[in-house]
Amino acid sequence: MNDDSKSWDVFICHASEDKDGFVRPLAVALDSLGVSVWYDEFSLRLGDSLSRSIDKGLASSRFGLAVISQHFLQKPWPEYELRGLVAREIGEDRVILPIWHGVTRRHVIEFSPPLADKVALKTEGLSAQDVAIQILREVRPDIYSAQPRQELERIASGAAFRALQEEMDQTRKELEETREELAEYRCPYCGAPLSLRIDAPVDRSEDDWDIREVFECGYQVFGGYIESPCPSDPKFPKFEDYELKFFEAPKEPRWPWQCYAAGKTDMARRLRLPPGHGATREEAERELRDNYTRFAKKK
User: Fold this and answer.
1) pTM for this structure?
2) Distance (Å, whole) CA 106 – CA 75
3) What DSSP character marks residue 193?
4) Strand bridging mode 220-222 / 37-38
5) In the sheet where 276-278 sits, what is the strand order?
6) Which of 79, 81, 89, 287 is the catalytic position?
7) Element (H, E) at 126
8) Across the strands, what pairs with 213?
């Protein structure tokens, strides 16, 4: 199981020449399997101190994977990393997991006799995914035992990820198709949902019928003709597109003044504003303006 005091399950100690052919596919496979990996391409960021970051990775990883290759044996940085792992092993249990990549026991003995004495995983005849699964068994037995070997191979090879990606692409496609199907049930200007759809006669004789649709934003259309515009329509009328007409009814005890809006443009005539009422001319006009504002802001 995981040691909660460590940030990563494994630190990969390797030579840069081995990245493309083995180390990068190994790191990707381990990551796909659920192993947290300190690997320079995953963990280093622009501006990071190389030595400080490596020291942090060495100290904060439960295990160190040492990819021993001919290139590794000739490089100073991998040797520096390996010394850090060896220092940790003095005070801790098994830390180093050697991976022999194209080297023999003689090569390793010449480089480090103690390292040659450790049981190593040899990559000959194995893919990076095969090696990742064997490492998984050592560093994360909880994950290893939870899945059959065939499923682990699928995950490590990226097949599971590709299947998930295909499933997500299919879901995205279905959502897009659903969105297109639902488009007729939403206002074409603001996307407000349809609130009413009814069949209505075109004329008084009721010989011809068509569909009237009303949307929550106030947009209303009948047989393709806009009866009331949406506030998001660029052609939505301005208040200045109306001529105000005032009427006084002295016998009306409470609201003697009435203010009506007569549209001066085609679109203004389609937006019928309720009249304003008031005790004074100003109050009636103010109520009419409030009615316009309510229609203009309706969503």
Assistant:
1) 0.48
2) 18
3) B
4) unpaired
5) 242-248, 257-263, 276-278
6) 81
7) none
8) 197, 221
